[in-house]
Amino acid sequence: MTLHSSRPDARTDLLHGTLDMLILRTLQWGPQHGYAIGQTIRAQSSDVLQVEAGSLYPALQRLAKKGWVTAKWGQTEQNQRAKFYRLTPDGKKQLLREESRWTELVNAIGRVMKPAGAPGSGE
Amino acid sequence: MAILAWFKRRRLDEADLKNEIRAHLAIAERERMADGTDPRSARLASLKDFGNVTLTTEAARRVWTPWWVEAAHDRVSDLRYAIRTLAKNPAFALTVIAVLTVGIGLNAAVFTMLKAIAFKPLAGVDRSAKLVSIFRETASGRQLPLSYPDYQYVRDHDHAFSGLMGSVLEEVGLGQGQSTRSLWGELVTGNFFDVLGVGAERGRALLPSDEAGPGRQPVVVLSDGLWRRDFGADPEIVGKTIDINSFPLTIVGVADPSFHGTTVVFDTEVYIPITMAPQLGFTFGSQQTTPSGILGDRRATVFFPKGFLRPRTTFASGAGQIEALGAVLSRDRPIADVAEHLRTVPFWQTPGGVSKEMLPTLLVLTPMGLLVLTIACANIAGLVLVRGLSRRGEIAVRLALGAPRTRVVRLMIVENLVLALTGAFLGVLLASYGIPLLASYAEALAAPRRVFFNLAVDRMVIGFAVLGGCGSAVVFGFVPALQSSRVELVSVINQVSPRGTTRGRMRAGLVVAQVTVSVLLLVGSGLVTRSLDAVRHAYPGFDGRHVASVAIDLKQNGYDEARGRLLYRHLLDEVRTDAETESATLAAYEPIAVLDTPSQRFAIEGYELQRNEELAFLSNTIGPDYFRTLRIDLLAGRPFELRDDQGAAPVVIVNNTLARRFWGGAAGALGKRIRAGNGEWRTVVGVAADVKYIRINESPRPYVYVPFLQSYRSAMILYTRGPAPADALVERARAHVVALDANLPILNARTLASRMNGALMLFNLTGMMLFLFGVAGMALAAMGTYGLVSYTVRQSTHEIGIRMALGASRLSVVRAFVGRGLRLGAAGASLGVVSALALTRLLGSALYGVSATDPISFTRALAIVLGGVIGATLVPAWRAARTNPLTALRYQ
Questions:
Q1: How many Cβ atoms are within 10 Å of B125's Cβ, its own excluded?
Q2: Which residues of A touch B24 (CB under 8 A)?
Q3: d(Cα B297, Cα B286) in Å, to the nearest integer?
């Protein structure tokens, strides 16, 4: 997942939105720092989605600006300093919205790709 | 708290992000080391994995940047880039800016004049273009001022105007005795300042109460200019008394400095209540003798009432209401046996006004200005196109590096805008320095009368120039910019020479267009300059050289009619004994009077008026020797003599036009009788040749002369002719007047020739403008054609080399190129002639003494343009042909 664009257009908006959703989703299980968020997404997607730092940190800034996450410096289990991000109530609501939109989108795409009446859709 | 947080989090915390990235790297590094990697490769791998730190920070920062800051930043960088690019090629930039400066400067000048006449005719009056004037129209179409009682009736019964004022411009004498100075004054109604919304800088303006009754309010308001020039800006001026036409008036105030009166071009210096007019000796053509009689006379012609319509009244409905009032007036209280109408016109169409006179000329100047701008644009388009060619490499590299085409086009548009706006700015500067020069030229011509031109370069003009600049940028820059951006990468980068068929066609098109427009412009300016020349050199019907004119007004020193007649006789006797004087005479009006003199209704014995027909002629009151002194031919009969006095039979001299129209010629007119209004019948004793009476470009009109001893006037002009130098002649004439009455004010004394210069001021002014336009347009066109043609030739250096290597002579090469240039030139010239033939027809009414298809103007224009094209081809072709064929071949 490569995201560096200087200018928002429709395509990157969709990608931005998706990345934001993934980050929010990752934070649902508790506060995490940036590196861990990247690693989590990577692990959960079985190494398919690799979030670059160049996309991750701007995305975190974006979420912070919108008030969906808050950040606080803390210690990792290995006793390293790191900045931990935590979902806000607004962020939780946003995640729900994103999820339902996502489901809708996936279903819609699925219907297009495998129409119910079309041959080969009976598998 | 939330608000505080909002403020705090408006921008990126850079240090925090830096720490965060550092932490990220540390964690990643440690994790790698935990997997067994050595510290050094762990650090490198983490850094590599993270990617570009600067870009990340940049992207994070952008999250917090408001969109408009980013957009502005882009524009600023575009602008910086554009300026840098232009600075790299200063010759190009300076040429374009210079061409635009001239183009926009000329247009701004024309626009300023147009503004002065149509959009903002009166300085110091808000929305002055919205003023509306009312006049009387007789059945024969004569446009007359209203009388004072008619004005009062209309003012009191009208509902269309928020207020109706009246004002009439008169020449008045300020001061006493020999120090009297002649200046422009307006006799105004009490609501004059109210209606116009003009205030007083000191004291008060005139008020409706100042119009109480004839002679009741001897007050005056000064102009700021008069107050400063003649009274040294005296702070105690209010309450002092000045003499106007030898009548003391109390100064009640000084008008707002920006206000110069309501007569375009004339600089009014005093404002006096109209009810004081009889005391100052103004009768407005009334035969009444008492002040209340003059002001109550409905046959007097005083002024054209003016005012602003009420907010929700349309012009049509306002005009309808005034017309209806006029109908009531002429039904209930008819003053003439023929019907009269009250008409309403926008201010600039006020009868006899300068605006109405000047507008046709300006309407010629406007398209000429636009043509100059068109040439300028075509010029620049050519330059931009040529430059685009040399920038193909640069553009190709930019496109290859991934710049979107829109971005490239945008950059070029920004470049063009930088050029255009600089040009617009300099153009406004040029106009704002040039216009005062023209104005002061006009002022010098009009001196010692004061004129005022509302020619300030204001926001309206600047807006116009900026609009013009941006418009031209679009015209000259857009197409070439698009073309340049449509560069084929491969061919450019492989250095394939440009296959410029479209470009070649476009260049050829531009040459043709330029030539066309130049021909059009040159024909137009040629026609108009020739017409102005004809006007200036037109024989006005009299000879003003070696003639001194001294204007006096006996009422200014309290003369009554009996004493006045005596003084006139003495004066003429006195002057005639002077050995230095060939001849001398008196007359009420000067020829080419510029200001309309009142016309009178006449009846001709034996001539039946048709229904609604009316005979109205201009007339003059003259002394003996008038025709001899001004060298006007007498075609039949005899001149007036001193014996044509009150006791003798009433006589009259008519001009040739009148004689021909009613009696078939000069000889037939003698012995016939005519009369003015209901006056006594006068016998025609002579017929004089036609003269230009009001304007140099007027068509012949009927004219009547009455002997001065049979028709007394207090304001007369003494003319003397003699061999002495002009100034000495004027001084002698003045000395004669002083010798008779040292206290009689002399309104002005100068040569008739110099008075005529003042009268021709507007012609000279437009002549000057047209000359400038012609020169500028021609220079631009020649430059543009030269540039384009010589560029084409230079592009063909290779071809020339081949031709010459194959044995072509220098001459044949040059001939080939000149032939090519001439073909383009001929195409443009024929288009130009055709469009000029179509368009100059529209000039018809503005021309004088030249036909719209004047062959001299056409030939001259063609010769200049084709000569320019030949020169523009010849020089570079010759230079190319002189180069060594080998060099030429190696050129590419």
A1: 24
A2: 33-35, 53, 82
A3: 6
Per the CB < 8 Å rule, is A61 touching B52?
no
Whether B51 and A52 lie within 8 Å, measured CB to CB:
yes
Is B63–A65 a contact, with Cβ atoms under 8 angstroms apart?
yes
Cβ atoms of B622 and B542 within 8 Å: the answer is no
Between B59 and B201, residue with greater pLDDT? B201
Interchain pair B49, A54: CB under 8 A: no
B676 has which bridge partners? B602
Chain B, 10-69: which have a CB under 8 Å from a chain A CB?
A: 12, 16-17, 19-21, 23-24, 26-28, 30, 49-52, 55-56, 59-60, 62-64
Q: Are strands B132-138 and B161-165 parallel, antiparallel or unpaired?
A: unpaired
Cβ atoms of B629 and B677 within 8 Å: the answer is: no
Q: Which of B719, B419, B669 is nearest to B546 (CA)?
A: B719
pLDDT for B367 equals 75
Q: What are phi and psi of B186, to 5 degrees?
A: -110, 130
How many Å apart are CA B259 and CA A10, to the nearest integer? 60
> How many cross-chain Cβ pairs, A to B, lie less than 8 Å apart?
68
- Tell which of B7, B8, B9, B24 to mutate to test the A interface (max A CBs under 10 Å): B24
Cα-based distances in Å from B799 to B120, B291, B748, B817, B881: 59, 91, 74, 11, 10
**Beta bridge mates, B181:** B174
Identify the CA nearest to B200 among candidates B122, B270, B259.
B259
A12-47 confidence digits (pLDDT tens): 455 667 888 899 999 998 899 999 999 898 888 888
How far apart CA B82 and CA B76 sit, in angstroms, is 10
Which one of A4, A15, A35 would you mutate to disrupt binding with B, by most B Cβ within 10 Å of its Cβ?
A35
pLDDT (tens digit, 9 = 90+) per residue, B592-646?
A: 776 667 778 888 888 887 776 778 888 999 999 999 999 999 999 999 998 898 8
**Mind telling me how many Å the CA of B41 is from chain A's nearest CA?**
19
Question: Between chains, do A58 and B63 touch, taking CB under 8 Å as contact?
Answer: yes
* Pair of tokens at residue B802: 């081949």
In this prediction, residue B387 carries a pLDDT of 72
Interchain pair A57, B59: CB under 8 A = yes
CA distance B127 to B346: 12
| Continuous segment of H or E residues that includes residue B46 | helix B39-50
Tokens describing residue B830: 């024929």
Comparison of pLDDT for B68 and B341, the residue scoring more: B341
Predicted confidence (pLDDT) at residue B186 exceeds the cutoff of 90: yes
pLDDT tens column, B457-496: 778 888 888 888 888 777 776 666 666 666 665 555 554 4
Q: Do B12 and A78 touch (CB under 8 A)?
A: no
Helix (H) or strand (E) holding B20: helix B14-34
Name the residue among A54, A57, A78 with its Cβ closest to that of B17. A57
N residues, chain A: 123
Is residue B485 a contact partner of residue B395, using CB atoms and an 8 Å limit?
yes
Cis ω on the peptide bond leading into residue B311 (within 30° of 0)? no
